[in-house]
Design a protein that fits this description.
The chain is an alpha+beta fold. It folds into 2 domains: about 50 residues, no CATH class; about 40 residues, no CATH class. It is built from 2 helices and 2 strands; from the N terminus they run H-H-E-E. A two-stranded antiparallel sheet has the order 1-2. About 10% of the residues have low confidence. InterPro entries: P-loop_NTPase (IPR027417).
Length: about 110
């Protein structure tokens, strides 16, 4: 933490301006990594249980079905544009079957 890229005072001011909690982490020193993960996971779980409190964007016409969600962690507006800080949750892509496998047969 001695060689931080971000000035601690600058980080604190930004956190206050954004109205969010500041948690200093270091993967190298294993400092607060687990705590931040648990905090973010708890927030996501709480938002999933109470959908009126998080930013939900209706699926776009080209979305992957009814399970397509966009949760904006950093953008309080409800615009449908994906901006930095936006997490898009989608179901895994279905594997394409070999369409030519059974197309040609010998009679």
């Amino acid at each position: 933490m001695d060689h931080s890229v971000v000035n601690p005072e600058e980080a604190e001011l930004l956190a206050r301006a954004l109205g969010c909690r500041l948690i200093q982490t270091s993967v190298k020193e294993d400092l607060n990594v687990g705590a931040v993960f648990r905090h973010l996971a708890a927030q996501c779980l709480a938002e999933l249980h109470d959908p009126k409190d998080f930013d939900y964007y209706p699926p776009a016409p080209n979305a992957f079905g009814p399970n397509h969600l966009t949760i904006s962690a950093f953008n309080p507006s409800r615009s449908s544009k994906n901006q930095n800080g936006t997490i898009v949750l989608r179901p895994p892509k279905k594997k394409k079957k070999n369409v030519l496998k059974h197309a040609c047969r010998l009679l």
